[in-house]
UniProtKB/TrEMBL annotation:
Residues 338-362 are annotated as: Disordered. InterPro entries: AAA+_ATPase (IPR003593), At3g28540-like_C (IPR058017), ATPase_AAA_core (IPR003959), ATPase_AAA_CS (IPR003960), Mitochondrial_chaperone_BCS1 (IPR050747), P-loop_NTPase (IPR027417). This is AAA-ATPase. Keywords: ATP-binding, Nucleotide-binding. It comes from Sesamum angustifolium. Gene3D superfamilies: 6.10.280.40, P-loop containing nucleotide triphosphate hydrolases (3.40.50.300). Residues 338-351 have a biased composition (Basic and acidic residues). Belongs to the AAA ATPase family. BCS1 subfamily. Residues 352-362 have a biased composition (Basic residues). Residues 132-270 form the AAA+ ATPase domain. GO terms for molecular function: ATP binding; ATP hydrolysis activity.
Length: 362
């Protein structure tokens, strides 16, 4: 194959070499393939400085396009990495993308831009002396799409996912070993971080102690060291994602820049998020009940998962919209009932207080 680049001609030739390895007792012939590139000597600088880097970059891009994203977890199921390592993996067939996520459009765009900026700044991170890592904290009520967002990030970047459960680990050394064995261009995910570690009483202790609080403190120390300590330099182009339903329970030490660089609030379903769900589940962009639904959603708090569940109850668009409206009306009635109950309880306490004051005066 002959190529022309910047006025220089180059010829590629595929070569095959057949041989029998010395330690091969079956006399099996092994084929080794390689490409040979020929060009005139006067084009040497152009080929080495321009053409070959371009070919390698294109090869990397094509490989990434064909890459199958996998999700890794501890356990011997699916394919085991490294011929017997602790991480097992299966293909990530999660269909979530940024287009299907029912989250705030502005926040979604900010996240996409942040991810794009991160993956193209390899030399920048080296220049400023920082490990090529990025941390994201996803927080919000259950059912708001935190796990779906992780899948969308992996599908967008073509990064493998490592799903780590800290509760299954026994020591800081075990945690360090697992983290070092993760590959580059990957996302390390620790879900419900507030339930996995203790971030308020970090004290030195015996790493192998049976005391669960000491074990949590040791794992916390190991995790923080991997995020921005000396061990953070082990590997490149890594993303760390922590999720929680209760951000207020986390110690500020974990949330500071350099550890969790971007905090993403996965809120209750907004009307813009509802329209994305309507497009995904029902294939509609507008409907005569949209105005009514928008008004109701301003009065109640519902998750995208709850709205999606109502849409799935009927394949008929009008019937599905009716179910969504009834669900939102029911939620509003429940909210009003709770508010009235709280107010009634407050009034009752005031009356009791007045009676007690009257008795004390008497």
């Amino acid at each position: 194959m002959v190529c022309c680049s910047n006025g220089s001609l180059s010829a590629w030739k595929l070569r095959s070499l057949f041989s029998t390895p010395r330690n091969n007792f079956t006399n099996e012939i092994v084929e080794r393939k390689s490409f040979e590139l020929r060009f005139e000597k006067k084009f040497k600088d152009k080929v080495l400085d321009s053409y070959l880097p371009f070919v390698l970059e294109r090869s990397k891009a094509i490989k990434e396009e064909k890459k199958v994203v996998r999700i890794h977890a501890l356990g011997y199921y699916g394919e085991v990495d490294g011929g017997g390592g602790p991480w097992g993996s299966v293909n990530l067939d999660h269909p979530s993308t940024f287009d299907t996520l029912a989250m705030d459009p502005t926040l979604k765009q900010e996240l996409i831009e942040d991810l794009n900026r991160f993956v193209r700044r390899r030399h920048f991170y080296k220049q400023v002396g920082k490990a090529w890592k990025r941390g994201y904290l996803l927080y919000g009520p259950p059912g708001t799409g935190k796990s779906s967002l992780v899948a969308a990030m992996a599908n967008y970047l073509k990064f493998h996912i490592y799903d780590l459960e800290l509760a299954s680990l026994h020591s800081n050394a075990e945690l360090r070993m697992l983290l070092v064995m993760t590959k580059n261009r990957s996302i390390l995910v620790i879900e419900d971080i507030d339930c996995s570690i203790d971030l308020e009483n970090r004290e030195d202790g015996d790493e192998y102690s049976a005391n669960p609080m000491i074990k949590k403190n040791q794992l916390t120390s190991g995790l923080l060291n991997f995020i921005d300590g000396l061990w953070s330099s082990c590997g490149d182009e890594r993303i760390i994602v922590l999720t929680t339903n209760h951000k207020d329970r986390l110690d500020p030490a974990l949330l500071r820049p350099g550890r969790m660089d971007m905090h993403i609030h996965m809120s209750y379903c907004t009307f813009s998020g509802f329209k994305i769900l309507a497009s995904n589940y029902l294939g509609i962009k507008r409907h005569w009940r949209f105005n009514e639904i928008e008004t109701l959603m301003e009065e109640v708090e519902v998750t995208p998962a709850e709205v999606a569940e109502e849409m799935m109850k009927s394949e008929d668009v009008d019937a599905a919209m009716e179910k969504v409206v009834k669900f939102l009306c029911k939620k509003r009635s429940e909210c009003v009932g709770k508010r009235d109950s709280v107010e009634a309880g407050g009034d009752e306490k005031k009356v009791i207080g007045k009676k007690r004051k009257a008795r004390s005066r008497g």
